[in-house]
Design brief:
Layout (H helix, E strand, L loop, with lengths): L2 E7 L4 H19 L7 E7 L5 E2 L2 E2 L6
Parallel strand pairs: 1-2
Antiparallel strand pairs: 3-4
Amino acid sequence: MPIIQIHLLEGRNTEVKKQLMREMNEIVCRTLDVEPSQVRILINELQKENWSVSGIAKDEQTN
């Protein structure tokens, strides 16, 4: 049973996340030759103050 974990910054809308899960499921099924019901996908949304690049939190970055 494949389990896929995706870590994203908060802010994407529900439909975009559902589309990502559908497309990831298709790719995993095709690549690993498993049934859709066997695939688990977990999206972990992180607040920008809990994610940093080069030691600077994303909520402090301009881009």
